[in-house]
Design goal:
The protein is mostly helical. The chain folds into two domains: 118 residues, Up-down Bundle (Four Helix Bundle (Hemerythrin (Met), subunit A)); 144 residues. It has nine helices and no strands. Helix 5 packs antiparallel against helix 6. The two termini are 12 Å apart.
Length: 286
């Protein structure tokens, strides 16, 4: 892959995810056999290209590529797939690959096609501070955990609806039991909450000593998301929100967290850590 730019690698990854999702959907629609292996193949190919692209972009800016909405989305998708590769075999959720590649295709195509997402920014986006870089990395990784949680919640709702209406679609035949999905959702919720808590803690190490640099809007939104997921955990422990409502709450909250990325990034771009000159977009580099 000599001479492959980060921009081309990102584009090829989005194509792999999209083609994998399309072929898996067609096989599910017209075939009787399980076609989850197509989703796996698409995820492996796209993940490999995305890993290369992120490494090229990171080497160019000498930091974790989280400087604009395009890079943030790519990193979340990459983390989402990495988590899937870890937990998929453990929980034996074969068709989680289908939902994972669907979300990966949607997000990567969206940020690739919408203009203005891969904007230029100063290379010292983290101000050279390792605490802020670690904070940002963990926060985006927690979003990836919440993404898997949202997909698991969606699978739970589809399976429950199928059982309730006694209408077993082709997809529902391959989905795990609602008990298994509910158990996995509870574990993912606690994991994502702990990772987000660690992200806020590492960020606080820097912000306490540099109060004038605290990104108020970004911090407020992140704390609201943290409170939201924390509230779901407490309500679940108190048995005030269980199974279906738990799944709906996790799905809705993730959609809200995802929708908040754009306004948060817009606010952040106006309060960079260092008032340095703006560089050309790294996507223009070969």
């Amino acid at each position: 892959m000599l001479g492959l730019s980060d921009t081309l690698a990102f584009s090829l990854a989005a194509i792999c995810y999209s083609v994998g999702f399309l072929l898996a959907s067609l096989r599910l629609r017209f075939k009787q056999s399980d076609g989850a292996w197509i989703s796996y193949a698409g995820l492996i190919a796209g993940f490999s290209l995305q890993t290369l692209a992120l490494n090229l972009r990171g080497a160019a800016i000498q930091a974790c590529p989280l400087g604009n909405l395009f890079e943030i989305t790519q990193f979340i998708v990459w983390s989402l797939i990495l988590i899937f590769f870890i937990i998929g075999p453990i929980f034996r959720l074969r068709w989680l690959s289908y939902f994972t590649i669907a979300l990966a295709a949607m997000l990567t195509l969206l940020v690739s096609l919408v203009p203005g997402t891969d904007t230029a920014y100063q290379s010292s986006v983290f101000g050279g501070n390792p605490w802020i870089e670690l904070h940002a990395t963990l926060a985006m990784f927690s979003y990836a955990v919440f993404a898997i949680l949202a997909l698991t919640s969606l699978m739970f709702l589809l399976q429950q609806r199928s059982l309730k209406k006694k209408h077993h679609s082709r997809l529902s035949q391959y989905l795990p039991s609602i008990q298994q999905l509910d158990t996995m959702a509870r574990r993912l919720l606690l994991t994502g909450f702990c990772v987000l808590t660690a992200a806020l803690a590492f960020g606080a190490v820097f912000w306490i000593q540099n109060l004038q640099l605290v990104p108020i809007f970004k911090l407020l939104v992140t704390c609201l998301i943290w409170v939201g997921y924390g509230s779901i955990i407490v309500l679940r422990w108190q048995h005030k929100i269980v199974t279906r409502r738990h799944a709906m709450a996790c799905l809705i909250l993730f959609c809200g967290a995802l929708a908040s990325l754009w306004p948060v990034q817009s606010a952040r771009s106006s309060t960079e850590l260092q008032p340095a000159a703006v560089n050309a977009p790294t996507s223009d580099r070969d």
